[in-house]
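Sequence in, structure out. Go.
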Amino acid sequence: MKRPDQLFHSVCLAGLLCLAPLTSVHAAKSIRFLTAGELQSSLTSPQEDVRFSGRNYIMGVVDTLMLMKSAPICMQEQTEINQITELVILQLQQRPELMRYNAASVVREIMAANYPCV
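Output:
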């Protein structure tokens, strides 16, 4: 007869093995990241729901940056997402060479350059 801790480990392992096919299928779908060019297309789309998705992407990047222990950005509480979105759009228009890079890293660099912790 198995001890309670061995039984617990066996049940956990069985559960993970059952989920393994699902996670591998999900991981296979995510083969690349969003580029800055794709983000810009979203942000400047004529469709409101597509623009909304682009703004939400930026918000996710900014939220992640703010949660880091050594956050590379410092913003005032009154900073609004529309300000940040317009800043990202402007920077991408002024620097088209950024379009091929990962969107999250480009947003991070734009934020760090414009909202540094001093």
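Check: Residues 7-30 have pLDDT under 50 and may be disordered. The longest helix spans residues 4-29.
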